[in-house]
Records
---
Amino acid sequence: MKFFKRAFFWLLLLHACQAERPLELADHPETSTPVLATQSTDISLSPVFIPVPQSTFAPVLPTTTPVSPTTMPFLQPTATALTPRAPRPTPDPESWGNWVQWDCVDSDSYDPCQRPIFDIDMLSRNEGWIVGGGGAIFYWDGNEWREQDSPTTATLQIVKALNPQNVWAAGYRSVEDDMYGVFIHWDGNAWENFPISETFTWITDISFVDENNGWAVVEERVGDYVETYLMHWDGVTWTKNTQAKRIKTVYMISANEGWAAGGGILHRWDGQSWEIVDESILGEEAANFGQSAHMVFTSQNDGWLVGDRGTTIRWDGSQWNSYGQLPISNVRDTALLEQQSWLLGFGNDMIYLLHEDGENWSFIDTPSPEPRGRFEGLAVLSEDDIWVVGHNSTYKYPYIWHWDGSVWVPFHVAPSILPINAFALTDENEAWSVGDGGYMSHWDGQQWNEYSGPTTNDLHDVDFISPDNGWAVGKHATMLHWDGKNWSLIKESNDSIYKTLELQDIAIISSTEVWAAGGVNTESGLGPLLIHLQWDGQTWQELEPHTPYYRCYFTAIAMLSANEGWAVGGGEGAGTIYWDGATWQIVSNPSKDDHGVWLRSVIALSSDAVWARGPSAGMIYWDGAKWIEDGAMLTPNPLPPMPTSEEWLKGKWNIAGYFWNGEAWISIRNSTTHRIINADVTPSGKIMALTDVGIWLRLEE
């Protein structure tokens, strides 16, 4: 049973239940603030170096070369593929239903279990690392990015590569409302967790002098407060150093020279201790860099600090001098190439990559992620070898772009979200999906191919009773029929007296009989919509459905046979109704709230095994005589089995995010970052789910 309904429909009913879209990031001022980006999706850009005058820093828009989009955006080709991995589920927050492992089906164009990307570090043209959400670690071998086994599912936001046998990554993991800092280390053979205190909540920055000398900025939970300070690496252990507090970033130039900044305070390392910089080298104007900062130094006598709102100061070897304000209000990463500095960040609703050649700052054209997308990490090996990485605004889809000296090449870009509302399998390797605007597409076992259907009305559900007999329903009471060769428009109504006229769900009884359920919204209120069609050998005839319920709206329907079925919904008139072969009858149920009775999905496996569920009602169970509350833990006796290959198309097996496997309900939610449309079962018994980017998930065997 389709369980994700269009947002407009639920808002209309004032009983909205938005689909959960968990973020991988906890709310944190450094990571959770959305930043607007340009809307171009160009993949071929020429670099433009635009001088930035020291006196004024008005943003200059980069010049771009538009590229026509592909006809199927979710099959957009990329230069190389990331190795997909199985997601790692987290415990089910509800008291019922079993969490199961879902496996992302391989894709030739991108990682189906996509996670956000936060940082990149390159040792050479042939070696580098990327880290991201869900413990993601990718390794560059000179030809392609391949995922490495990770010892953690934490959000990794920093990676520092010292040599091929010594790489550090850090970040945090969230457990309920708490955060815990994470350190992991690569020794040339494997990544392993490096033990740190359970009181650490986050590692925000790392800077190394060499393998035996490094510093990290950590946050630690102390009572009801969080303190920020430094830890020092001596080649064996990390040791707490609290001389510098309230800092956000650290930058080591040598063993005897380093800087730490944050909270509007600048500290300096002299080889023995961290000391707050006084007014003799940091005047009042230069000290106004704000709470956060990023630094980059070309030498002991030349460096930059960019703080809040782009406030920029420069170190000349003896003092810090105010430089002005760059258009970057939020610096995400810095890079150093010989005597040149690079900054990556955001400002004025734009993504900026800035380059400083020793005298002047210049803008450099970058590829533009989707609106509100962001780049997080930067690596510069040469002027013709630059990497930028990041993700979209909801921390779901990663971006990896490479500048080769002539064009930006997309190594990993986000697929487009599809307007899919429902899908149904018609064979082991064949399926149809439908969605908004009359969207229809066909899966042939290899790829999705868009189908030009006979309507532009939104389609809400699709179902089949055989590969050559299927139905789709939607807005304006639209009903489409599939005969094995073509989709045909059987029925629709554009009567202007209705504000809305929607069919939400369909139930196919046989090749000659079908039911559809929905509702209408008129000036006087809600009304029911039940349609009953029969094939007379020549045409589909509409029969009188006998529904005398005025103020109700049906959202789902399930038919066991021509003489038995259920429809559920809400309103003043009915929450559940029962078909006895002649008339529809109201059957009272315990699912009531302040707005009346509302249920959004129903599944009927047998006469005494019917479940229904609503936004606030939970699951109720029909035992053959009455509806029972808290029906999620109840199972019929005997248990309805999973369908055989001969009868698998005749029933629906999922309800509101759960699938009946013949013994119990299992969750079809997962730890990927995609919205799941719904789930279905193949003739061989494999349970498949589809996401809003056309990615298949299957239940792990």
---
Amino acid sequence: MVKKAIKYYQVNPWAIIEKGFDPTRSMASESIFSLANEYMGVRGFFDEGYSGNSLIGTYFNGLYELPNKPGNAGYKGISKKSHFMVNSVNCFATEIYLNNQLVDLAKGDFSDFTRTLDMRSGELVRKYKYRQNDNLVEITFKRLLDMVNYTNAYQVIEIKVLEGKIDLLLKSHLDYAVKHFGSLKPWKIINSREIPKGFRVLSQTKKSKQNLYTDEEIIVNSGALTTVTDKKQNLSKQIVLTLTKDSRFVLEKRLSHLAFQGEFINCFEDRLEEIVKKRVGYEEALKSNKAYFQKKWAECDIEIEGDEENLQGIRFCIFNLFQTYRGISTNNIGAKGLTGEAYSGHAFWDTETYILPFYLFSDPLVAKKLLMFRYRTLPNAILRAKELDCRGACYPIATLNGDEACELWQHASLQFQPSTGVAFAIWHYVHLTKDYDFLLHYGAQMLVEISRFLASRGDWNPDGTGFGFYGVMGPDEFQMMVHNNTYTNYMAKRTFIYTYEVLKWMRENHPQEFEKLMQKCTLSENEVDDFLTKAQKMIILYDDNTCLFEQHDGFFKLPHIDKNTISVDEFPLYSHWSYDRLYRNDLIKQPDVLMMMFLYNQSFSLEQKRANYEFYEPKTIHESSLSPSIHSILAMELNKSDEALSFFSFATRLDLDDYNRNTSEGLHVTSLSAAWLNIVYGFGGLRSDGKHLKIAPKLPKNWERLKFKIQYRDRTIEVETTKTDSTVKVYGDSLELQIYDQLYLVDKLIKVKTGG
């Protein structure tokens, strides 16, 4: 790998610490120091403003806006339903004037800058000393999003005079003039009124007519707040004070938000009132957060001995997965979570393949809620299939609300990873949880409609001996309009087979539910049999002699480019090569055949994995941040530990060390989960696609100890491994587990030699 780390933050097992401020790292740090609680998210921008590079971003899960211009009005099937997660009110906006001079770190004289994100509480603290001639003050900013009462947010600003005397003017704003994508101002104030110590404001997006109802309360330790009306779209309170040496001014802002769609009715006023009545102060909210995170870390912490950087890195990943999603909403997970505007807040097929396993093994009920998003948006997927001249349900490549938001036809119309990914996730969830009630009432219907889409989108080869998919794009997005992409065909084959098996099981064990489903989907026995026939006749490009799966028809005949001959300054290729040039060679963006072997790992022999890894990895340039982790997991299984460690080297610290030089756009949420996969599936040897859960830990050479916990069928499994011994503990009823190559009935604890 040619990507290099930018080592900027202090190494600490439980905190992200910035000492000193580098303006060139300002926007990346805003992403790193983002806070979220699934309901809302706020980037780590400066409360007091900053005239240097900055992306001020506050986002509410599920609130989106529509573009000013309608979507592409071109050919049939090209999506016209673009939408994007919308930047919302900046409720932390503050102006601080010291002796009539605005505090701005881009221009002022400051020292002793520190910024700390505590991963055991979710508290963000930033402080510095600011000099103005003979005057010196210390300014501290604290920020918190409530993890329990998740509609609430808090801000504390403390100003202490160390030298001299200061005339202070502080303005605290609710700023609705925020910009999205750098220029668009999406909000208008519908109604506002002053309330004791603040404002209550109803605002609405201009195009999508979505609403945010906000209540603020500002408490100061001295002086009196007055109202300011000097800016449009900006509701402000100010305070004027004179501060002498050793005096201390403290402002605490308490905020409650209620996001909703549709017309405003009185019940929303009542709901906000109830929220405000239960709102507590900063210190009490901080105490509540600490208790919340203590419980979460006890359930799924990872410990690494011998590698402090990656210990910090994986905890940063897990912490942000805690922040991003916990099942309180009805939404999916955007590729940037609530940390930035890249990818427009859209969810991709990553959710079901990369992200879901973390939640499956930390809180299966939360994982179920992610699947329920796909069930609720099944009507949208059915409509999308019709737009593509197909039957059944085609899930979108990019979406917030269930509609296809991607206007790039080569992705939206050719990639079926979301649909087969949903089918895989249904199987994976039921396989691990035995939640057959979900399968009966939700999963089976999705499987039928996905299979129906695949059956209508695929076709028979000229002599009618094989069924496959033509004009598609697999996970490797450097190959477009290809035929019989092996990943696509194989995942469809498994979807057909699983759907057939589920329907057979329902017919035999739940005949009434089976008949209801047949009627609801207008499904015939012939169509069910057709699913199995097409699975049995699926074209899978495989050579028994070489054990190689050809990525797609003709891939082996493509011109070869040695990736090592490409200069570093040409990466990323998307930015430096003409678009069509990407498709004219055998370079691979990210795992395709190997992705299939990761998802259905135990369906392939070690010989097949080795042959395909050694063939495809040298051609893969890892243009996607998701790519290295999958390669690391397979490399570790193949005893290529040096390669596994090399790929892993930036998995946990992709954003912390800004390997891709784009952390400024927001965190790579899917990569955060991929890093967890890399450790638990890679070095922990977890395999979850076989008859029994398999655990086969192996340590990379520089680690002394690895310990992790997973939740599985109402039990906690704790795995601890050293160079010599591996211990598996089961908290709860005994459990049959495969440890390395042997099956054990584990009752409390079993200890084996590392490596089996």
---
Amino acid sequence: MRWLQSKGWGVVPTLLAIGLGLLVFLLNPVPVQVLRNFMFDQYQRWQSRPYVSAPVRIIDIDDESLQRLGQWPWPRTRVAELISRLQEAQASAIAVDILFAEPDRTSPKAALDAWGASARIREAVSGLPDHDTVLADVIGKGRVVLGVSLDRQMDAPATPVTTPFAATSAARYASVGESALGYVHQFSSARTALPMFVEQAAGNGAMTFEPDSDGVVRRVPLLVQVGEHLAPTLSAEALRVSQGASNYVTRAVPPGGVGLEEVRVGRLTLPTTPQGEVWVYYSRPVPSRYIPAWKILGNGVSPQELKGSIVLVGTSAQGLMDLRFSAIGTALPGVEVHAQLLEQVLAGNGLQRPHWASSVEALVLVLGGALAGFSVLTCSALLALGIFALLQATLWTGAWLAFSTQGLLIDPMLPGLVLAVAFVASSIAYHYASELRQRWIQLAFSRYVSPNLVTHLLEHPDSLSLGGIRQNCSFVFTDLAGFTHLMEDMDPADAVKLLNEYLDHMIAIAFAHDGTLDRIVGDAVAIMFSAPVVQTDHRERALACALEMQRFARRHERALAARGVAFCQTRIGVHSGEVIVGNFGGSAIFDYRALGDPVNTASRLEGANKSLGTSVIVSADTLQGCPDALTRPLGHLLMVGKSHPLMAFEVLDPLGLTPTDTAYYAAYAHAFELMCHGHANALQAFEALVAQRPFDTVAALHLTRLRAGARDDLVVLAQK
């Protein structure tokens, strides 16, 4: 609880970053999909699928085939001959990536109609076979899969969707758990080959791809929904026909809620996306994947090369080919996408984005973001940076190893981004809070240190050592004579206002001399010099501060008197010496102050003013650093509780001295010198001083002492 109270400001941006990341993760907007796809594409660019010779070939109607055999479209008899050669070579399946949706215009009857031939000519050629009939007969010999074009527009020209996929399809559909309907890609209509072809074909498959928003084909569906029926794609039908299988079995992710998990085609079980798609693991272009169609028709290919293979008939000819873009950044004919998919399925080295991948990514997003953000709050900056770097390295390395060794697609982009946002947000909040703490320290410490020194301490923290250090310092203690009695006759609110006004000015004077406020006790003020920042001239600063305080106090007293407000005389004591300064009070109370006998001595000197009738008393220890100070000696003062006397002086204000005052204090110095040496003339000298200035309480004190038999400057004080 205490940690939350002290670090709560840093938890908020971390939680916000995680919450925003989860929201984006769940909404899955297009920019996130683009980033994820970019990462998956990059995996394939770094490590493309190694090409392993698989029983899959593309029979390519390429430019050379068109040059040798004539322009496209070829007569259906030539297509029939091509398919027949493939059947003779015992290909396990022949998938034709071409749509034969219209009758052949080169058939005899169609040609005669186009030419407007006479009845005699028609009778002469009436015995020639119809090209479409020839092709249908060849298709009927088995293992041929025809292509179907799908459309989402309801008004698109199409045959009834039940014809190729329900009434005549040899495939059956079963499901484990929920049906695939509603999960797979949905289309409204289908454009099939001629009914005579469809009825003879071993299978009919959709040639339609579902590229992402950037046009790249990353996944190929195995099943689609057309109207209210399931339909296979060209790749799926090629796999089914090659195995002689009849069934497609779908399995939904348990407990059914997100989509499909796998599709079983004959003996092959293929992991899929929730939409029934298979990720395509692309390999680099391999010339041996293609066999030109003219070689097949010219008997230029050994039947053994095609035996047992799935062959796909398509085109790469310029102007005919259906260009697609792959994840590795290459353009390739659409028929090759089918071929590469079949290769990876048969070789068993495809890609998979398992249904639990999203859960893992979300978990990493939350835990990693929390660890990255909270490390800023609990660790040093360098350690927090190290934890963040380790988290990122673990995330990205783990995702890469999952791909490179297991073919798993794990997205590090969004979790990594959330980690970075959580770390940066917490760092910004931490630095902002640190800045606020600095301002708070500056404001709070300004109660102890002159504001211009606070900036120095913040810029040079090594100059401030908390915990207690020995330091030579000077101290100024002030007090108001009789203020307690004065308050008895005043309204408390007026007394507080009067005192605060006085203290504000006294503290401002102390800060102007770069003094540190040691404490305020009622109407008494204690000022410290040379701590926490060392001041080589701390004695001069302390004496100058005391003198300016005295001047203010006198002006203030006169100003209040002019307003009819009685106020008190200010008494000041100044002393220097070695003390312990630092943080006292433990963890409960922060009390930066000085401890040592010099502190008590300065306070006693302030109190000695009451006995001596003076305003400002300074010790000889302070005057050692004030060669230009104007003072008069008071004597060695033995204060209550002290065993050793202390030489003290009264501070004289040079601004208030007249020539008469100067002459008087010179005479006092001479008389004091005589007294210190035990000279008999000392009594006479002090009698002359008292006669001249009866109100000089110091001269009167020494005269009394001399008359009592004293022969030195030792003054024993009876009160503090």
---
Amino acid sequence: MTLPTACLRIAATSDVHMQLTGWDALHDKHMPSKGMDRLANLVFDARGSAKGGFIMLDNGDALQGTSLGDICVDSPDEHPWPAVLHALDYDAVGLGNHDFDFGLSFLNTVMGQASCPVLCASETTNAITCTTSFTIIKRSLPCSDGQDRLLRVGLTSVLPPQTAIWNRRCLDDKVHFEGGVEAAGKAVSALRDAGADLVVLLCHSGLDDDIDAAEENFGAAIAAKVSGIDAMILGHTHLRFPGPDHTGFQGVDAINGTVWGVPAVMPGPAGTELGLIDLTLLHGENGWQVNEHNVRRSAVRSGDAPNQNLFDIISPVIDTARTHLSKPIGTTPEHLNTWFSMLRPSAAEALIASALSGTIANAIAGTGLDGLPILASVAPVALGGRTGPDNYVDIPAGPLCERHVAMLCPYPNTVWAAVLTGADLYNWIERSLAFFNPPYGDGAALVNPDAPAFNFDMLHGMEVEVNLETPAAFGVDGHRIRPDNSRIRQLTYLGRPVSAQARFVVAMTSYRGAGGGNYPGIGPQTEIVRTQVEMRDALRAAVTHDLPSTIVPGVQPWRFKPNQSARRVIQTSPVAAGHLSYISEFDPQLLGLDESGFLQIEVTI
């Protein structure tokens, strides 16, 4: 007997990061290939062409990421994201780690206005009032035998438990999250007990090339260890699946879009792609089961006009943001850019270091820490990476305005500090140097593509000489993998070697001070100085010279060991082609643009 069949289409967005429009607020220009106002066209097309049932989902990290998101935090007007969800008729949304960046009150207020269920099965403290662990939605599906049959689709969502650490500055241990595998297992079991015929997991986590459930990206671990999941939406890493980003991963079919046999999709971030999973279902004596699947990603077309309804929702926020971002705050005597921050420290990082260290100098004045040397741990704020070839700081010498502050401080962090020893600092820098590739030889990429630039923290106030002729002591996840290796050839403070017992006050962001990035030296016993000073306020004060400067002028925090004579390849902004004089000592040779639009330059280090 031939069983009747039916179709279900699952469409999803992930990591929208308040890219509600193609307007690039930081550079005041339009980008035609991203934004929810253009992605809306794909949603309507997917809904209209679905052969059976249709479900629309979002996988989190929607509330933070652009200046539009920042403006909405203090705006008296209603937040546009719930209106966008309503306009596109979302059926459910999950939460991501960055949705907590502005605190619980903001999250509960905004997402409490959503017209669809907001899901989070990870939280264990009941502090989030806008969410439920799971929900079941119903669809009447037309079947191949002419009958309509009811399908109960169970939906749940999980996120990295590290979210509580990354957002300690605003959550302050009020929220705790269970591990992804554990949370998913409980929610899926509860959904099956409640009568769900199918279960779709919103997994705000990516894929690692293993099934380690304890790591930040546990998507593969869930697929391998939790039974009863029929489809997964992945995210968080800003990669794409199916596709070459995950080729060769254990248990992963990067062509057909399965993870340990479970159909899964990870759409591109910032409203660039819609993820689609088409399921062909069989109905028999034991109910519904998945017979076939088709997984794909649909990209925004650059020629598409914005959807007028969504544009009308978003445009008032754009007007408010444009006015705010144009406000002047001071001047800079130097051209601030990060085009070559993988080759040497830039003036942009030096300005941030001044803001951090000056804030901490004020905070510890008159305390028991007064008199200890103050350093600043700073990573390049924008250095291409997965965000693309436009993701660089480029601020000409002259007037500075609020747009430039947002460019230099993209995250809502506060200023913290940690009291660390010289031994801690050695490990800190070694962990940072995982940013660079192993010594593959001439023509190899200088930077490890798996190492995000926001974890390349170097210590301003110190001087370190870097030797890349040895593999890194730490992995990109912050775990020591080669105990006997060292890339530090020399580490000095004010011209003298740093002793293991020496004590320093290291200014940093609250993200780093709370344990973000898994840096050695940060733990339960570390003496932490917390301030309530927002990074952007600190930067404004540094620009207007309202902060003391503790970083010795002219001290270069890091440099490559001289006379290594290796030829390496860097990726940077195409705009940098006109500024090669900045790196003349590296003998730069242009190689042209790669397929992602980055300018490739061969250099000698």
